Amino acid sequence: MRGLWQAIRRLLDRPVGWGRAEDPLRTLYHRPLPPRLRVNWLALVLGPLWYFLVGLWVQGVILLTIVFLSGGLLLPLVWLYSGLKADEDLLDARLWRRSVY
C-alpha cells in the first residue's frame, strides 16, 4: 500500500507543461520603479507643456482639455499633477512603447 502511494506521489510531483523561453523584455519590466510622487521640477513649472516636450502628446492633450473645460478652475491641480506624476508617466510611456499589446 505504501509503495502505491509513493508511486502516485511521484506521478503527481512531475512538472507539467512546456518550459518558458527567456523573455528579452524582462529587464525592462523588472526595473525598480521610481518613488511615487517624486517632484519633477521642470514638469511642475511647465505643467502639461512638459508632456508635449517629452513626446507624451495624449497625456498633454488630456491635461490641457481638463484645464480648458473647467474654465481654469483646475489649473493648479493639473500643474501639481504634472509635477508629481511626470516621472511615473514617462516610465509608463516607455513601457507602452516596448509592449507587445
Note the topology.
Elements: H1 2-12, H2 26-29, H3 41-46, H4 48-53, H5 57-69, H6 75-98
Provide an overview of this structure.
The protein is mostly helical and 101 residues long. The chain has a domain at 38-101. It is built from six helices and no strands. The chain has helices at 2-12, 26-29, 41-46, 48-53, 57-69, 75-98. It is elongated, with a radius of gyration of 24 Å. The termini are far apart.
Shape: elongated
Count of helical stretches: 6
Rg, rounded, reads 24 Å
Which parts are unreliable, with pLDDT below 50 for 5 consecutive residues or more?
none
Order of helices and strands: HHHHHH
Mean pLDDT: 83
Structural class: mainly alpha
Main sheet characteristics: none
Percent helix, as a range, is: 55-70%
Number of DSSP E strands? 0
Termini separation comes to 52 Å
What is the percentage of strand-forming residues?
under 5%
What brief labels describe this structure?
single chain; 0% strand
Structure in a nutshell:
The chain is mostly helical and 101 residues long. The chain is built from 6 helices and no strands. The protein has a domain of 64 residues.
